[in-house]
Amino acid sequence: MLSRKWLLLGFPVALAIAACQALGGPSGANSASTEQLASNPTASLTAVAPNAEAAAKQVAVYWRIKMDSPLSLEDMEAKYMPTLENMRTREGLIRKISLRSEDGKTVGGIYLWANWDYAAYQLEPDLWATVSKKYGDAQVSVTPLWSPLVVDNLLGQALFEGEALDEHSHDPLNWEEDGMMYTVVVQIPLASPVTAAKHIESAKTLTSNYAEVNGLVRKYFIRSDEGDQVGGVLQFMTKEAADGFINAAWIENIRNKYGTEPIVQRYYTPWVVNTADSSIVGIN
Predict the structure, then answer these.
(1) What's the fold here for domain 5-281?
(2) Which of 8, 150, 217, 277 is the most exposed place for a label (fewest CB within 10 A)?
(3) pLDDT tens track of the chain, all 284 residues?
(4) Host H or E run for residue 131
(5) Which sequence spans correspond to the domains of the chain?
């Protein structure tokens, strides 16, 4: 199991423990779920990867901002645009998938980073305090996860960690013309942890299940560092395509296969940033 060295500076306990658990840091009797939200706007954290092998793995950082009142798409665009522009050429970033819940009270993003050294930027001191303040001292939650494999249906192939970033496809979609994109995050708690090698081995056998799914753009396989949670980030062209695949029967199949209750979270995706061609899909 990988370990993490953490420096906690006035960091709220819920988010600190959640992040530590997600990437193998220490936890104790007051352990909190990775989905638990922290309300303290002065969150700060520094993390150091323990070795080169761990640092070389692709990381998906899943963050959410939970607000009391809904944020309109127009207001979200106004807040996001400076960030999206900066992300176009962010070193080490492969893709950012923007997220907005159907009720507009939760916004966030999925960031796919080339390795841990780049991803650690999102856990720098004061960053989450700034984000929380920007959204009116909103609750902020962050979950870093390993992402060793992606099925990219625009390329028609599966990509493994370590492959050239410029081989990742861009999104030739415009939501105003084709319908807004939609993303589903599935997290599956495991009764027994799975190793990184076993997770990759299993994921390889499942790639064909996602290769020809109607409307599926990409499926990212994800795993917590301790191996006690697996799942995926599924990016669809439209909500209709997502609902057609991630339906009651599909969820029941996951329950039967793993013997646990999956956490399924659904979001509209107004914009996707692709650093391979510096594009922002969804912005005209």
Answers:
(1) Alpha-Beta Plaits (3.30.70)
(2) 277
(3) 322 222 222 233 333 334 443 443 333 322 233 333 333 333 322 334 444 555 567 889 999 999 999 999 899 988 888 888 888 888 899 899 999 999 999 999 999 998 888 888 787 757 888 888 888 889 988 888 899 888 888 877 777 655 544 445 555 554 444 568 999 999 999 999 999 899 999 999 999 899 889 999 999 999 998 899 999 999 999 999 999 999 999 999 999 999 999 999 999 999 898 888 878 887 54
(4) helix 127-134
(5) 5-281
